[in-house]
């Protein structure tokens, strides 16, 4: 793992800027703050920027972890019971700003109209009623491993998590392409467009607000939900591997794949890949102040099961999706500087 531990001096150097920004804005979702983030990121300590750039460019590992960011746990207050409205009056605004700046050094942060009401910074926390449902807010059921937003051509290059609370040390699970024994797998078959991927539940209308409050955005979002539905009904055939055949990139979410109609060779190749991924799966328990950038091309991830408490002391992470090619999704966004994919 590519890892950096922030020292007390690093924290002392960073926090004045974080505090100033947290005072100047009301929410991390303010488009002015998000737009300025890549510029503000240039004021982060040089060794941190070099560390992130090395991860981005040379791919030394599929995981990049920054630890040691100061989190005053007694000042966080209760874990929200839902992600809705958690962006206002955040007790972790300074940490959110740091997370946003680091993410903006790796690429452009973006959101989905169909997920968490189009917000850029998501919450990952257990939600009552979701215990046995396949979604990030489940708990008694483990979250099956996946490429983040595997179904979508505009999925992020990185999915990143910042831990605020994890009292039961619940493990995030990861399996990384550099750890897999590719020589034993039918890589050529996995590069062929013979596999079908469906959208995951977090993009369904049943997990969204009735309205965004803006009729134009509602129309765009409705079109987006229709597209998701059509992909559910008629998934397109595509490869699960791409890039370099000697060091492949991956895109798969087996929980949302139906193997109906796949050729025998491709089905066998897929099953062997899944078995190898599972064989190399490991757990990472995030601590408050840990930030992990998961290379969404080179690692799949999930989460172990746990018992939610629903008393304000639950596990609580923040999540950002990052792309290195915002223009790649231009057809899906209403304006060049709009970061929400419809
Ligand atoms: N196997 C899966 N893809 N499960 C759903 C993944 C979690 C989803 N990204 C969410 O925000 O809730
Ligand atoms: O809770 C975790 O550690 C991972 C969450 C996740 O993968 C997701 O919400 O998509
Ligand atoms: Fe995920």
TrEMBL record:
GO terms for molecular function: iron ion binding; oxidoreductase activity. Gene3D superfamilies: Clavaminate synthase-like. It comes from the Bacteria. Fe cation binds at residues 146, 148. Residues 231-320 form the TauD/TfdA-like domain. Pfam families: TauD. Keywords: Iron, Metal-binding, Oxidoreductase. Belongs to the clavaminate synthase family. This is Fe(II)/alpha-ketoglutarate-dependent arginine beta-hydroxylase. It comes from Sphaerisporangium rubeum.
